[in-house]
Every structure is written in C-alpha cells, then in structure tokens.
Amino acid sequence: MRNLLSITDFSVEEVNGVIETAQKIIANPQAYSEKCKNKIIATLFFEPSTRTRLSFESAMLSLGGKTLGFSDAANSSSSKGESLSDTIRVVSCYSDIIAMRHPKEGAPLVASFVSDVPIINAGDGGHNHPTQTLTDLLTIKTEMGRLDNLTVGFCGDLKFGRTVHSLIQALARQKGIKLVLISPEELTVPDYVKHDVMDKNGMNYVETRSLEEAMPQLDVLYMTRVQQERFFNEDDYLRLRDSYILTAEKLQSAKEKMCVLHPLPRVNEISVDVDADPRACYFKQVKNGRYVRMALILKLLGIE
Amino acid sequence: MEINPIKNGIVIDHIDAGKGMEVYNFLNLSELDCTVALIMNVFSKKTGKKDIIKIDESIALDLDVLGYIAPETTVNFIKDGKLVEKRKMELPLTLKNVIKCKNPRCITSVETCVDHEFKLVDKDNKVYRCIYCESKF
Which of B100, B102, B111 is the best mutation test for A, with the most CBs of A within 10 A? Predict the structure, then answer.
C-alpha cells in the first residue's frame, strides 16, 4: 500500500506518471468518470481549507466515487480528546483512501502507521504539501513546456510555506534548476530544506531581499502568503505580512514568457491588477489541482 | 575499593566520569535480576577518572543507544573469564524514545502514544532529525 506524505515518496518517474495521467484526464475527462465507482475518499481537515478539501472531493466525484469527512477539527472526535491514531483507525474502516490536513507537522506519518488505506498528506503545519506540488509541477510543465532548466523564484514566507518546501524538494531532482529565494530575514527557508535538500543536491541558489532585482531573471515566480496561523506572536505577523506585494508595475520587468504561481488563498501579496496578465497562472493552478488529484487517487488505489 | 572481575557478562568501560548513572538508567539495568555494579570515579590513565558498569551475566542488551549518550564507551563481552569481543560505540542510525522533539508544531507534542524517533542525517556533526517534523536535534 502506498501513501503520499512527502513528494519524495514518489520517484521522479512516478511524479511524471501522475502528471501524464492528469494531462490525459484533462484531454478526455469522460473516460475517467466511472473509474472510482463505489470508492470513498475521506477528507479529514483538522485545519480549515477551501481549495484543497474541495479539490479532493471534486476529484473523487469526477471519478464517480463518493466522499465523506469533516472540514474542522471541532466537528470531529478530536475535539473530545480522541487521538489522531484512533480517528484514523476508525475512518480507515469507512473509506478506501484518506486525504488529511493537520496543523501539526508529521501528523500524516502517524496516520500512515495505523491506517489500513492509503494516506494523502493534504498539508501538515508548515512542513509539507505534496499534492500542491503535483499541481505546481503540472502547471509549470503546461505553461513552460518543461520542468528542467528553469530559474524559479520563491517569494514571501519561505519558512512556514509548506508548498515551498515540497516544491523545492521536487525541483531538486530536476536538472538545471536555479532557485532565487526572496524573503525577509525572519522567513528564510528552514535549515532542513537548505542543508538536506538544496545543499545535499548541489542546487544552484541565491537568497535576496529584493523582488524587483530578482524579477528579470525568473521563468517562474512562486508567490506565497505570510500565514497568520503559523505565528505564535501577532506582532511578528503584522510586521512581516506586507513584505512583498506583486503588482502589474513590478511585473513589467519580468520576461515575456514566464509564469506567476501562488498556492492561494492570497491576501494582498498579489495585486488584483496582475490577474489579467497572461503570465498570471494561479487560477489555472487551481483547475490543475483537481485533475492532478484525480490522477493521484487513481495511482494510490491502483486503478489505471 | 576492589571489584572482582566477572566470568561471564558485559563490561561497559570508559564512561565519562559522572555519566554512569545516566547510562545505567537508559539501559534499564535496574530491571535486571543479575548482579550489576556501577563503579564511579575510577582512576583512568587516559582521562583521570571514569565510570564503569559491570553486568554479571551474558544477556542480550540493546546497546546502540550508548553510541549517542556515551559514545566514548567501550563495551567488553566476557566469556569464561576471557575477553571475546571489544566493541567501540558508533552513533546509531535511529534513536527511539531517547530524546524528545522540542518543536511545538510537531505531532509528537500532542499525540502521546507515538514513539519519539530521530534519524541520523549528519554523522560528522552528530545531527539527528525528528522523523515527523524534521526538526534538528
């Protein structure tokens, strides 16, 4: 039985396989509309989410399956003090696959120890978010035509931005990637990403505080939100939240062929005047998220 | 003070002076039925002082944790009064329930039934990472 807890649980070939399946689904969704008939996905969201939870549910419904779950820990037995392990043991009796989001880092790993069905990490604290990474990779592949030989800028909260950590892990396995890490001093990438992923894989990267300086060289700009829920100290959040705001004016110095991604939700880090720019791909990302999750469900359930 | 040599058993030698009790507790030696001697502040040519633990029985003990808590130790296995194996301790690849993750965002901070497990990621710098949240220890 396979799980997806971190993007590195899948080989490069497997990641490419999921992306290819997603592209086939996009080309002919009808052919997949009954692939998961009589299958149930449980979406266990111990932390609020709109996109990710709905995209998993949409994905399973589009495959002809059914969904159950909860969207808030307050609506689950964890509010009564039940352990995560017990919740997972119970839910794995009711479902064929589980997608879970939890505020604590490593929660999906604990779930995988006790589950009888595949576990998908739909985000664990500031740690990992591998299905967003699959979404990001599909979007980059579609927009840029390749996943290698790219200069990728990450901007904003690189410390708690789990989508950033997962995508860097995935890009570390591609050739010719240059990373430009744009963040305030307090929100740089954690050392396990820097040392164990970037340094270990010999990645080419630079760290900068200036989005404007970085802009002209980027093939991909990955914007992130400074996440209020990750801060223990409100003052730190207020001080850092407006560090970087992408505007149409700043985008003028960018390459003509590049793409702006954002895992969403955005607050104010991308001005709405960027939305009309053909390089703004964050809503395409949302759409891709549904298809790539369909492909992932098929893979983990062993359905081709 | 004199402690007799053992005939069959294990001698954990060269423990840093003062750390013997910690080693004794980590290895749960209080639960053994056989004779166990914890000798502290023994004269050492190399370090001046050292602690020694002698276990008067050949038993299977998980000694891997010594590589982490007392890497300076040497473990001698004695059979029929003779030294049959001398083992230098190395950092174990994993540590289970030896140290606890201090990251308040880690699942182990709330899920009490799980093992606190760390894996060795950098032998030279003695760096372990929590298998759940990947925090450094």
Answer: B111
